[in-house]
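A student in our group prepared the protein record below, which I am reviewing. This is what I was given:
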Amino acid sequence: MMRLPFSFASPAGPRGRLSILIFHRVLPAPDPLYPDVPWADEFEAHMQWVRSWFNVMPLAPAIDALFAGRIPSRALAITFDDGYADNEEVAAPILRRLGLSATFFVSTGFLGGGCMWNDRVIEAIRACTAPALDLRPFGLAQHVLDSPAARRRAIDATLVGIKHLPPTERASVTDAIVAAAGARPSPPLMMQPGQVRRLRELGMDVGAHTVSHPILTRLSPEAAFEEMSRGKRELEEILREPVPLFAYPNGVPVQDYGLEHTRMARDCGFSAAVSTAWGAASPRSDRYQLPRFTPWDRTRLRYGVRLLANFRQAERVAA
């Protein structure tokens, strides 16, 4: 039912479009605290829908075909950000079973079973046994923790409150929040280097996502370039092959990265870069600001309709 409208919205050739899906995690089972994060059975169902509607391609050749005017109709690529262990343990085997590929953008500083600052906050508040958590000493709020919904509200407000702090200050506040919540060890959520190599063995691609996942606009130009170039080098050392693609951390244009960072991506030797702005790319798009989008709907029809509506988003055109 959806193939025909997708064919009109995303034709082959010079007028072609490329939809790029973005994910972060696929859990082995549903999470009551985060019911919006896909779990294995749900993700597999969604990927079956996508496979039936689109020509799913690896991202790098899809980008090359788009800008060469040779993209097939209904072209789509799948991406993951950050480098969670469940990407290799849960998502990649599902994709392989369905005959699909994806590109996994990895922040190298967390490899080896690390835990990103946002996940440290999430897991600390999840595990807090106190009835309330007072974060006012850190410039935040006090939160009641009497239900999963209340914990989720506390987590969301806390993450928004510290996301755009300078990296050193954000790390310090994160430590203080974890201590206030009970100072339990953070879980090792991220991949081991061997899992990155395993993704390639499974037929997946790997892209760079900096070292420490900073907000690039909060860094000096020198520090931003080092984050981008070093992340690329470290992945290339792990994989023993070039890493041509980059994803901006957080990825909101202007807010999280600027035009100077698109020039840095080019100077680092990346052939293209992706953001988190909604939309579907066209040959007019900026190759270093390609949009990505994923529907949050749980029924086949709504998921497809929202993907179709995404073609109407304004694109960032190459200068």
Remarks:
- Residues 247 and 274 are 5 Å apart (CA to CA).
- The chain has eleven helices and nine strands.
